[in-house]
Amino acid sequence: MAEISGDRLYDIIVVGGGIMGSCAAYEAAKLGKNVLLLEQFDLLHHLGSSHGESRTIRATYPEPYYPPMVLESFRLWETAQSAAGYRVLTPATQLDLGPADSLSLKSIIRNCSPDSLPAKEFDASADPAEVPGAFNIPGGWIAVSTAVAGIIKPTKSVAMFHSLALRHGAVLKDRAEVESIERSGGNIRISTADGRFFHGSKCVVTAGAWTRKLVKHVTGRDLPIQPLHTLIWYWKIKEGFEAEMTPASGFPTFGSYGVPFVYGTPAMEFPGLIKVALHAGWPCDPDRRDWTVGRDDAMFGGVADWIERVLPGRIETAGGPAMKQPCMYSMTPDEDFVIDFLGGEFGRDVVVAGGFSGHGFKMGPVVGRMVVEMAVEGQTATAARIGVEMGVFRMDRFEWRAKGNVKEFEEQVVSHD
Questions:
Q1: Rounded to whole angstroms, how far apart are CA atoms 251 and 190?
Q2: pLDDT (tens digit, 9 = 90+) per residue, 84-105?
Q3: CATH code for the domain in which residue 364 is found
């Protein structure tokens, strides 16, 4: 017999149970709303972008609209951890470095502020002992360190927001693949692939790498959100250096601009290993991923060379990474988010949040709050309060310009077509 919501009309139905959906469900339930969260796979699955052992939170961005979102999100992470009674975020320092002529790095430094985001700059003349993590800054490079940063445990974080949402009365259902979103009178009717039906006044779509497919199926609109299959690499730390590359020793999260774009976190997930990875991936269909892609050694060389140049003598590079883990990005052409009303027959009753382009996890709490405000009030007071103009996240920006928002700096994510 088909399961239906019957006489129960949910205030908000959230589609997608990853970090964005779980944060949205929590925020809505906190307001006293009747909330239903639908996840197509098992809760806490490893098939999307919200699993694994670490994500970086950092407020350094070349775009001016992300730092205030991260600062607000950092506050919301702390609030959620206090409510849960345990931590998922380990504070750290962030170090950004790269060629002195990098437009991205110049913009990052310009967006730092003594009031909101104090920064300390370094160049090749700096004593490595004074640079966080004792990074070697090559000639012609610069670096900037900031204190608003840390390492987030992704799977643990999603579980935390699930539990907080449940505590406030939300209903969570997994193995509930949404097949259609339709108007039903003045409400929204959602049907699943196995024949269940649910009704709500509002809907928030946070379907990750499946956002493009779902939106196209529902409206015919083709959002340019391209999933990328990515690999996270862990390298073996040489004996004697393990302790100094941990958060407790002040080793930073880091991002290195230019070619290759390299990022990483201190050693904490796996004893004796450190994450140093490429900000890159391969276009994929999220339902038909090639799990063997990237197994060759062709891409390791650039990162190994970077390690030997910036962290010389501390990491084993000869054999390549010791461990590789798959993940996914959901890329937009301009690497900016899509946070907007679905429009059309749905008006402002359906909100879509997707295309987080490999850098959204850290902002889950603030995005969750913003999309709930949009669904409930028709606008987001949080964005207005922190000074973020939501026009940069409109989905129709790609109709005006195929590449979306105009950027004055280089792209950061490499797609291996």
A1: 47
A2: 999 999 999 999 999 999 999 9
A3: 3.50.50.60
